[in-house]
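Reading a protein record of the kind used here takes only a little practice. Think of the row as the fold of the chain written in a discrete alphabet. A record is reproduced here so that you can trace the correspondence yourselves:
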Amino acid sequence: MENAKNPIVAITGTRGKTTITNWTAHFLRAKYKKTKASGNSSNDAFLKLLLRLAEDKKTPAVLEISSFQLEGISTNLLPDNSVELSGRGPDVAVITNLYRDHLNRHETMRNYALAKANIFKNQTKKQALILNYDNPWTRFFLSQKPKAKVFFISLYKNPPTKYFLIRANKKIVFGDGKKERVVLSGKIVEKIEKLGEHNIYNFLASALTAYLLGISWKEIEKRAKTLPQISLREEVILKRKNLTVVNDSAGTSPEATIVGIRRFTEKGKIILITGGTDKNLEFHKLAGEIKKDILPRNLFLLNGSATQKLVAELKKTRYFRGAKPQIFESLKEILISVRKILDTEYYTPTTVLFSPGSASFEKFRNEFDRGEKFGKYTKQLFC
């Protein structure tokens, strides 16, 4: 990839990067049919994409980049033709947001943010950087003085700049540096809003990236009607009368589980399956969300170091009210118990949400292995 001439999109952040990577590729296929999304996926690894780049110089490469991959990048240490990020800054870089995560590796939030900031270190003023104006850490990224032209996405604020894509009054408004104009409205915006607040951010980032690489708003609107479901990201794996089963195994932080609870609470009762391995994260906010929306009898916990921290936070809120936490050693045991509840309450619209909110390493190879096993047991017990 040292001499790759292809347009490069690089996407990082705590939440949403896999969805944005895949949705961006989906939009780009309106013009570049062979566009592939690659990076943090069990299906299409980064190295496979390197071979494709040598065969096709025009198709954009859309890459999901983790903080672990970024932490070694430095403008002082890397030669001009470095392999990382195709030997140059990405043509469009996206930082989705930043939340507490991976502190078992980075130790501090500042170190974590500095690793993420490396995504724009080698960019030039002819390239673009997309930041989430609503996320508090965006100010830190701006303090690192990115050279690229900065575009903001926002749901709630009007950025003090002429370059942005925002959701305002049920419309999507684009600022190109000269004027503001409504680029999307009506039913397509209503469709996106039904996917939850986090997915509105994901849509804004992916749509703006595609537009900056030459996809018209008309084509973006057309392809927005068929946005792909992302594997293990709030993935609906079973849907029938009064029952929806959601596999969110890639939700490896408490914030991810909070997002899932908020999205599916609107659809009726939730049975939440959560828990796993700790990454030096905090669980008090998740505990508050669970207390607000999940009955103790509908909370099923997969044992692990993060689970114990969550239980401790829940006890502080007197959530269990004298009841014993339902902690299990295997996913299959949990689903057998969930099935018993569903057999007696089949008439009540229910969403079974598997959103661990933590890592997987105490019981699984990774989040993909965990999600695959959840899908397998769901098929065995519910289909």
The first helix runs from residue 17 to 28. The first strand starts at residue 8 and ends at 12. The CA atoms of residues 339 and 382 lie 8 Å apart. The chain has two domains: 8-224, 235-382.
